[in-house]
Predict the 3D structure of the following.
Amino acid sequence: MSTNKPVWLTEEGRAKLEEELEYLRTVRRPDVAAKIHAAKEEGDITENAGYDEAKREQAFVEGRILTVESMLKDAAIIQEGGPADMVRLGTKVTVVEEGSSSPESYQIVGSAEVDVSRGWISNESPLGKALLGRTVGESISVQTPGGTLRFRIASIV
């Protein structure tokens, strides 16, 4: 299941995945096993909707456990801080779209931690890719379904 491709995570992101894995193993897995056991106790499982649902839930939980384990195995921690001279994973960047005076701020994170409500965008997104390796004052173009957008990098933290 491992892709051998690093899964870029912040320390916070790794901690959240570790917590989720612990929860899945210690709470969800036993809960689903109890549901399956209870459904079997009802007798014939061939037309038992409760049993079928519990088995689907079990497949989901086991699949998620494998996914999280793989992500943690391939985790590469984003080193935050450091020089703010260039956009890289973990940096916060403020851009101004051409024709606008409203700045927008983003933090470049790995795809496993994207959270647009927090301004966290993936290094693999069109905007994230275009920003990586750039410096303050540079202009970038990003191809979107609605056309090309142009941004100027106002600051990097």
User: Anything to note?
Assistant: The CA atoms of residues 30 and 53 lie 15 Å apart. The chain has a mean pLDDT of 92. Strands lie at 7-9, 75-77, 92-97, 103-109, 120-122, 139-144, 147-156.
